[in-house]
Description:
- By secondary structure, the protein is mostly helical.
- 83% of the residues lie in helices and 0% in strands.
Amino acid sequence: MKGLLLTNYYLIHRSFLMYTALAIVISAVIFYFADPSFYRVIAMLIILLMAMPALEVIKLESKTGYDKYVLTLPISRKNVVQSHYVFYFLIVVIGTILSYGVFSMYSLISKSAVENIVNIVSFGTFIVLFAGALAYPLLYVFGAEKSDGIVLGGGMGGLFVAIALQGVVGYIVEILAASSLPIASSLHVPILYTLFGVGMYIASYFIALSIYQKREF
């Protein structure tokens, strides 16, 4: 697994660093010109831009023929799918941490505290996790040639689902607020979005594994 993860990183490390720098620059520009209503967009863009190269791994594997070569190695198809999902998840975690860092830095520089940073970033994390959950099974079905459209569709799908879930999350938050659970009320929303995102991502893994194991090269 470690070798597969390192291979994934080396395939996209240049574009990963470039997209990371781009995410920081774009977020700085939006912070300068936009108002607080765009904060969720900033959080989503930072994480999404960092995660996009991870979704390009399958495309690059196809171009180089590595996707066929890796099947000749003493590893299972399950290991290959796991490496894609774990690698993407790790990139999302790094993007989430960077997003927190960017918002914290902005609060220090502007001397204007950003409220509910945890809620803002968790919303973006959910969208990007859902984008990956939607993209990987489709990439295994339709192939790397359709990757650009699939990645774009995954991001848009994540945004729409996140918006649609707001009502459900709000309803559950009301129930939690009335309960005696020892969890701070300010953490209810980010915890719920994180649980929904991780749950969908895990379900996507099993769907993608089933598709990949039946796939013919």
